[in-house]
Amino acid sequence: MMRGLRAACAVAVSCLAATSVHAEVRLRVAHTLSTTDTHHLAALKLKELVEAATKGELRVSVHPAGELGNDPALLEGIRLGTIDAAFTGNPFYTRFEPKLNVIDLPYLFKNNEHVYRVIDGPIGQELLAGLERHRMKPLAFWEIGFRHITNSKRAIKTPKDLEGLKIRTTPNPAHVLAFKLLGAIPTPLPFTEVYMALETHAVDGQENPVFQITANRLHEVQKHMSLTGHAYTASIVAMSQSKWSSLSAPQQKAVMDAAKEAQGYQRELNRKANGESMELVRKAGLGIVEDIDTSAFQAIVAEQVKAAYVKDHGSAIVDAIAKAAQ
């Protein structure tokens, strides 16, 4: 009798364990940035929020610094379902959904408040929805921020100072065209290759927000920085559509809510990080051009790059973004 009872208990425990293992779902989140970058800290916040909301039913692992591939590889992985979720700069998504290129138009946004009114509202949601045609489930806009130029050759004070400089850009058509118009040689590269390209002088410079520059140690291999603020870049958190569909409705809600909450958390980190990063750049001895006449840059690139976008996609979204500044 006792032997039979023990056997029954063992079977019950075994079944419970099997059920528990079966219930646990793994979610791999990948990115190409360093572990000191605000994106990584936001990803850890997302992990904490998802696991708490699902009581551990969803387990999130975060894979930084290109561990699972460079930016284009991560997006292909999402589309194929070999990577569950990832985030990278909006420019890398524009190869699938060219309308998203509007966010990267030079000198389109006046300030952060203007940006947030656009990307957190109906315009942003409309743009994100287009990714669903490409087997991606967009979750949220995180932030890279307003971009500035660094290089190893000379101080950039006027557009003429950019002539002939080989500048690493994103593959975004708006970024590439803007630097061509300014007389530079735009050189698109995956972010994981930027430090080495700068160190070996394969390229002369690059353009990113200040906190991205220091978090990824790019200031160590540059001599000059100019606060041009020439374009804003969002990053997009997206999931594999197949992985998203495999989640229960409560799990989907937990992931979506966590991505939105981590969005606000990351933006707060960015405000703080930008100030601290400027101090790091100064201590590193870079020459910093702060008082720069951006109107000279804007006069060359803003209208021509916008016109190229409008030619392909119409003016409705551009006009709506301009109206949101008022």
Output the helix-strand order. Answer: HEHEHEHHHEEEHEHEHEEHHEHH
- The count of helical stretches stands at 13
C-alpha end-to-end distance: 81 Å
Runs in which pLDDT lies below 50 for 5 or more consecutive residues are 7-22
Mean pLDDT: 93
**Helical content band:** 40-55%
Strands of the widest sheet, in order across it, are 7-6-8-5-9-11
User: Could you state the CATH homologous superfamily?
Assistant: Bacterial extracellular solute-binding protein, family 7
Number of strand elements: 11
CATH topology: D-Maltodextrin-Binding Protein, domain 2
Strand residue percentage = 15-25%
What brief labels describe this structure?
alpha/beta; 326 residues; six-stranded mixed β-sheet; globular; single chain; five-stranded mixed β-sheet; D-Maltodextrin-Binding Protein, domain 2; 18% strand
Set down the secondary structure blueprint.
Elements: H1 2-23, E1 25-30, H2 38-53, E2 58-63, H3 71-80, E3 85-89, H4 90-93, H5 112-119, H6 122-129, E4 136-146, E5 148-151, E6 166-169, H7 173-181, E7 185-188, H8 194-199, E8 205-208, H9 210-215, E9 224-226, E10 232-240, H10 241-246, H11 249-283, E11 287-289, H12 294-313, H13 316-323
Helix pairs in contact: 2-11, 7-12
